[in-house]
Amino acid sequence: MTSIFPPALIFIAGALLIPLFKGKIRSVYLLTLPVIAFWVLLNVPEGTYTMFAFLDNELMLRFDKLSMIFGYIFVIITFIGIIYALHLKESKEHIAAYIYAGSALGVVFAGDLITLFVFWEMLTVSALFIIWHRQTPESKAAGFRYLLVHLFGGVCLLVGILMYYHNTGSLEFGYIGLDGLATYLILLGFAVNAAIPPLHAWLTDAYPEASVTGAVFLSAFTTKTAVYVLARSFPGTELLIVVGAIMTVFPIFYAVLENDLRRVLGYSLINQVGFMVVAIGIGIPLAINGAAAHAFAHILYKALLFMSVGAVMYRLGTAKATELGGLYKTMPLTLIFCVIGAASISAFPLFSGFVAKSLIVSAAGYQGLFIVWLILIFASAGVFHHAGIKIPFFTFFGHDSGKRPKEAPLNMLIAMGIASFLCIFIGVYPSALYSILPYPVTYVPYTADHVVGQLLLLFSAAMAFAILMIKGYYPPEQRSVNLDTDWFYRKGAPALISLISAPIAKLNSWAGQTALETMPNYLVWFGKNPLAALRIAKARFMLALPGTDFKEEIKKGMENEKNAYPGDGIKPWSIGSAVSIVLVFFLAYLVIFYF
Amino acid sequence: MKKKESDFFDKPRNRIIMASIFLCTLVALIVADFFIPKHPYFSVEGIPVFYAIYGFVGCVMLVVIAKQMRLFLKRGEDYYD
């Protein structure tokens, strides 16, 4: 059965046709593609479809509830992101964005590991072009680092897949689970894209260097495809609970210190993906539902936050907290959208984060994981602290920067408006989201104790922020770089290489000096008068021997010899005597030959 | 072009009103927390105002630790250039 048209190809083939269009027609075309893709998704019956045979295996597409929910949100966010980027005159970023989104769809609907790997690598490459599109030296360098880290992950994944195929004889992409080296390598490949520490630094390194519009796309796809593949192949892996819990906590501290607000968003992205990774590690249906729901909600509000900070950056050219402040005066709509995004990520009741994150926190409670539960609650308060309050506060309030930018362009406002609407819609009407989750849902998010508990948590976090701010204890915004694990390849690796290469370089230059200069020079010197040279050597040897008498005499003789060197040199011999010697040798050969 | 500048949040009166609303809500929530029925996963969750205390202490700790981390992690903006 091959009557299914792969959704990935709608975007990827569609991207290649973009250069044919100009002006208004191009805008219409750009907005049509996601609509077509969404329509296709709505009409696909669930099931697995064989596309064609490849070697001894079949390349397959799989549509089930888990892949569909990711497919829906990927198409929706592409639509929103494209509206946000509609003002761009050049089509390059649109093309890269569509190939990027298409690759993400390809991963999500892949039914076998070959298809998965191909789209996985396309995802890396297309993301690279989005990062590079800003065309600053920083984005170029960050893009190369992004490429290196992801190629490492890709190689791990490929080797893992090959070993897995060798072991099991199957290329089906389904539950894998941790069992042997092959599966660890596959997990490692996935972990790079999921920004699991210590492999997370590419995210906070590269995303803030992308363009205003590019960061919106980047925030949505790479990490969430990784969440999908983890949920598909490693649910219930306890290791993921541990790393996920770490992911939810450590970025908060960085986010508090960070000055670049898009980098703050990068850290909170890792924190949010941490919730999903914990949920996948827990692995019960409630938790997997939570991971999928949270991915859905998260893509929307994270893109919304990137869009609102991006709109400020579009107007002012910077997203650094030290340069911003007081912008509410002239960008009130952007402020409102930003606050909606902030309320959603902070999981305020009636916003999308609340109905999604609750599933995960409840799953941890349901399984009796007390420490994990405490960590998740702390991380929830922390994310409100840095993403929910810090981002809007330092951008739109804080100290007045004196800047009075215009409100964001219309297309950006529309994109933010749609995302805001969806954030609130999901929060107010959670059954819409719950109905497309992988497992049936009986969960009720809005109970009195849950709402009051969550509000208390958030209000007290806000209280803490306010008191620390008024007391002047809150760390002031400072222009700075905060060390993270990317230090190891940005500073550590070059240092290590020079540590290793310095002795080797020394050895190399010494060997070269000896073999190519000192020794030939000596031979030349020796050849000028071997007899005298031997006499000097003998004198030196005698001097070196212990207990020799006449040391002074020998020394004097050697000095004389040295001064006279090379002296007359070798006296040329007559040809006759040379020929005689040669004849003697011939004679010797003859004798040897016959006996 | 007319200047369309809002100064709503600069007026001390508005600030005081907002702060009062915030504090009143917080107090109301704390009071409510003593009376609503709970179905906790863990016993600590059943303690009234557990979330308030945990959130407040957690966030203060967060900032205190982050400030200490800055001593080790902070470098100049051109550190990697």
In short:
Chain A is mainly α. Chain A has helices at residues 7-17, 23-43, 65-84, 92-108, 113-132, 137-168, 181-193, 201-206, 212-233, 238-257, 261-282, 285-316, 332-345, 352-366, 370-396, 410-428, 430-434, 448-470, 487-528, 530-544, 551-564, 575-594, and strands at 47-54, 57-63, 481-482. Chain A contains 22 helices and 3 strands.
Keywords for this structure?
heterodimer; A: 595 residues; mainly alpha; 4 domains; 22 helices; 3 strands; B: 81 residues
Please, could you describe this protein's structure?
The complex is a heterodimer of chains A (595) and B (81). Chain A is mainly α and 595 residues long. Chain A has four domains: 230 residues, no CATH class; 251 residues, no CATH class; 40 residues; 67 residues, no CATH class. Helices cover 72% and strands 3% of the residues of chain A. Chain A has 22 helices and three strands. Chain A has a two-stranded antiparallel sheet with strand order 1-2. In chain A, a hairpin with a 2-residue loop joins strand 1 and strand 2. In chain A, helix 7 runs antiparallel to helix 9 and helix 14 crosses helix 16. The longest helix of chain A is centred in the last third of the chain and has 42 residues. Chain B is an all-alpha fold. Chain B has one domain. Helix content of chain B is 64%, strand content 2%. Chain B contains three helices and one strand, in the order H-H-H-E. Chain B is flat. The model of chain B has no long low-confidence stretch (mean pLDDT 85). The chains are: A mainly alpha (595), B mainly alpha (81). The interface between A and B is large, with 52 and 47 residues. Strand 3 of chain A pairs antiparallel with strand 1 of chain B.
